[in-house]
Amino acid sequence: MTYTWTDLPPRQQPRDPLAYFALNPMQRFFEADRDFANETPADTDPVDYEDQMWLALISVAKRDDNDRSWSLNDLQNKAANYDPPLPAGSLIIPGEYRHSFRERTDLDVVSIYAKRAYLNAANAADGEHRLGIESITTCAPLDRRSLHPSSEPFLPPAVTQSISSEAVVTAVIDHGIAIAHDLFRREEDGNLVLSRVDFFLNMDDVSQTAGQLPASLGRVWTRSEIETVLKKHLHNGLLDEAEVYRELGLINWQDRPFNSCAHRVSHGTHVAGLAAGYDAGEPVGEDRRIIAIQLPTSVVRNTMGYGIETTIEKALGFVAEHIQNYVQDGEPVTPPLVINFSFGNFLGPHDGTGVVSRAIHTALAEMSLSTNQPRLLLLPSGNGNLSRCHAVIELTEQAPEKEIDWVLQPSDRSASVLSIWLPLMPVVPDAALTVSITLPGENEALIITVGMVPQFTLINRTSPDGGEVVIGIVVYYPPKTPTFRGQIMIVALPTDNPKDVRPVAPFGNWALRFVKSEGVGSLKLNAWVQRDETLPGFPEFGRQSRLSDQNYPRFKAPGGKVLDEDPPSGVSLVRRAGMINGIGCGTLPAVIAGYVDSDGKMAAYSAGGPTLNVSRLFGPDASAVSDDSVALHGVLSAGSSSGSRVSMNGTSVSTPQVARWAAGKMAASPNLPFGRADVFAQALADDPYQPDKPAPSRTGGGRLRLPSVFGGLR
């Protein structure tokens, strides 16, 4: 047989399969991508894989004797005393965490920098007991030159920004934010050399130059520093934007092969333009201040299908830190805040209990406790409605068996992930469910038995030299707090590697068969395939895997138009419903879908609910325009260069329009609470019930009737 299965005993089982996969089987693919992209400058030696640093989002474990968590100082002590000793510098606590924070024993989700040896030790079966870490979420290794490790916490920032009583701050967390665009500047003496960006964290900066404010990753630019750069590169009233971005670390061809701000279209600039872009002469622009966070390119372009969300805790921490650094008439003041994060994924429990959702909830809740000023985080509902990446598998006494295929694409250089969640069951009866997995071209199946015993199986393939190579893993985890849902996860290597001839995962149909045992009640399983296609603008590496069911209707009959909602009497296991952004299922963020302005219909790609969170069962809170018409796709916003306007579609662009509207509402009532309920209520008012109103699972409260930001230019 071509493939073999290896079951790991409990003491050898890593506790987080995705972290294990990223750190170990994916090593040769990360190294191939780095060499292929020529990311290591010619005059420097490549960093050994064991010395690479990773940004990890960790859930801190509870102490053995009570319900308090370990502190960050405890984690450092545990790492220092680990036996056998870990390599030097294996764990770095970000300098942004103050002494008081490092002593807290009520922690849940925090960020760390760590080497592979530490993360593997923390992910081991005894990692929770020995290192104090409950779970790990990580992705691709960072560029070491962007890190600024510090054994001591940074001093509190002393830089403040002066604002008026009508000011609102919009924080944009994205990639490719061309902060020198004329929509983010103001005029002084006839020249656009004043910036509305008060604080800019460029996580991509590798210059190692110090600014007014320290950063553990990249560099922080303050408003005065940005304006100094603008004035330096202003010649005869014209700004040399390329030089500005080189100095700011946003364009760096020598050290980084992909520079979003050098392209005609950059995601972050387009989003920021919709959220907070104003012509220099517009009076309201002076009071719409900006905090910008540029995410690391190495993380954003990662084609493993997860990783971008690991940066959210650090980004929100940066916003929470600097929203405190404003003054009004010389007195400290905390202005209203709108945060836009136009990214998402398909994976997760979709009930608000995932680690990223918890990190978001904690950050927003703590910001709200520090002040009574309004706070709002906006997330997109996602563009996966037609991706065929969700299935609902209902097993009953009448139909105890179901089959479905998971299709992996050829020449796919991204890992593929399928996650299957059991219903809410604190205790799963032994052998309640069996899942058989048959690989393409094979007859023998791997059998997973579901109960209260975890299972971790390696899928091996023989290499040309006779050795065994891990090409995938199959994992079952019983229910545990806080989700209380059992989970089956299948992770496969890419189906192609441009440099390494060792075995890869087979492309084609991975056949899955689910069988419910007699005597067990009905089971309703939810399966999601993780998003693993390459993001727009990056070199084509990832190709999206999907679920396949012969009963899935893709097109309407007659006519052949795309069918963007599940038929009422549909029998397919694959569903469009429930493809909402996996990190958009918490109770605090407002989630925005997209619709077409010309006909009022939901964009075919706009994902909806239901979710598994009873607090937001329907899914999105509202929808906004993501396409001007059926002929003119997308909406206009800022291109990467000043004066340019480009079109881009997706729920990523409907979301910042709501952020812009919310900022206006907050400016009008800066002392009143404002949250997702207000977004939902406005959607209901703008779009009362009518026969052709889209279902709440697609549009939430309704279609917001917001003025077009740049639509008059079309």
From TrEMBL:
Disordered: annotated span = 686-714
* Spans through the membrane: none
Q: Name one Pfam family in it.
A: Peptidase_S8
Tell me which UniProt keywords the record has, alphabetically. Hydrolase, Protease, Serine protease
The chain positions of domain Peptidase S8/S53 read 167-672
What PANTHER family does the annotation carry? CEREVISIN-RELATED, PEPTIDASE S8
Question: Per the similarity annotation, which family is this?
Answer: Belongs to the peptidase S8 family.
**Protein name in UniProt:** Subtilase family protein
